[in-house]
Amino acid sequence: MSKRIDAIDLNVYYGNFLAVEGVNISIEPRSVTAFIGPSGCGKTTFLRTINRMHEVLPGARAEGQLLLDGEDIYGPGVDPVRVRTMIGMVFQRPNPFPTMSIRDNILAGHKLNGTRMSKGDADAIVEKSLRGANLWEEVKDRLDKPGSGLSGGQQQRLCIARTIAVSPDVILMDEPCSALDPISTLAVEDLINELKDEYTVVIVTHNMQQAARVADKTAFFNIAGTGKPGKLIEYDDTNVVFNNPANKQTEDYVSGRFG
Ligand SMILES: Nc1ncnc2c1ncn2[C@@H]1O[C@H](COP(=O)(O)OP(=O)(O)O)[C@@H](O)[C@H]1O
Ligand SMILES: [Mg+2]
């Protein structure tokens, strides 16, 4: 079930270094939101706080609130492992488990969670997830072959299938097409467009055309200089951010004057 995300006064640290400061944002369910901005402005860092992946690094922490349909995922007693099931993540480089079959890649999350299920139920999850990732037709005859035998674009869709197999509410993607060729990129973009019917999708992209193609809303982050924290500068309908931004920094960035 697609859920809403609200960040409230979120600060993100690596040790003493404040990498991202004071983010306030409401991300709509059943939509695609893009994070854009120059390298180092904290897009990845902020994205990784949304499913508590950030804190796995030693000394890394977040302050403030992050609400998933109103529940603070940083609240006392909240299990970060459960958070990462509800809020899945897809990375820059496709990272299927290389020695596992396509089928076992899809079921990996369930196995990790210790879910017991019949072969029929497992088969149903595999098919539904691969269909959901627009990959079923391409792999249905080779489910027992290793995931690493697929093309880069197929591997990325396999990773998306693996993410949706555990029925998350939110899917986070960090530059998911940056290692893909243009045809595979379009396949993943088409998929992102379909995913928003069921999930809240957040995508970091350095490609402004991609943001314009896939995102309903766009958040522009910027940084005042090295060692300074990244900040959310402007957040609006994608169309507004690209064509009629309210902030001068946004205008300079989207018109290619820097970054
Ligand atoms: N593991 C880390 N340890 C310390 N600082 C980091 C780490 N990862 C990123 N940073 C710093 O945090 C800031 C934001 O980086 P990042 O989130 O990767 O930016 P972006 O994804 O927008 O390019 C940068 O100053 C970067 O050097
Ligand atoms: Mg990044």
UniProtKB/TrEMBL annotation:
InterPro entries: AAA+_ATPase (IPR003593), ABC_transporter-like_ATP-bd (IPR003439), ABC_transporter-like_CS (IPR017871), P-loop_NTPase (IPR027417), PstB-like (IPR005670). GO terms for molecular function: ATP binding; ATP hydrolysis activity; phosphate transmembrane transporter activity. Keywords: ATP-binding, Nucleotide-binding, Translocase, Transport. The lineage of its organism: Bacteria, Bacillati, Actinomycetota, Actinomycetes, Micrococcales. GO terms for cellular component: membrane. It comes from the Bacteria. One of its GO terms (biological process) is phosphate ion transmembrane transport. The keyword ATP-binding applies. Residues 5-248 form the ABC transporter domain. This is Phosphate transport system ATP-binding protein.
